[in-house]
Write a structure and sequence with these properties.
87 residues; mainly alpha
């Protein structure tokens, strides 16, 4: 659903005519969209940076599409499980 941009985000619901507050539910700023929730929101950026840091890699992508493209190109056939020390 996220890849196809079919998630019921506030910006999409608004475009369908529903009266909703479009502010991002997580940070309260900008319009809640797939890109905002998965890439542009400060909280999402912190999550991505933390997870990738734990896995010993970085990604400078700014949008969801850029991040998805990076993941497809760099993570195909790889797993981060070996990098994480889960107890």
């Amino acid at each position: 659903m996220a890849i196809l941009d079919w998630l019921p985000t506030k910006d999409r619901l608004s475009r369908f005519g529903l009266a909703v507050d479009v502010a991002c539910l997580v940070c309260g700023s900008d319009s809640e969209s797939r890109d905002r929730l998965f890439a542009a929101c400060p909280f999402a950026m912190d999550v991505w940076n933390t997870v990738l840091s734990l896995c010993g890699t970085r990604c400078a992508a700014l949008t969801w599409d850029q991040r998805l493209s990076w993941m497809v190109g760099n993570l195909k056939g790889k797993t981060f499980r070996r990098h994480l020390k889960l107890k």
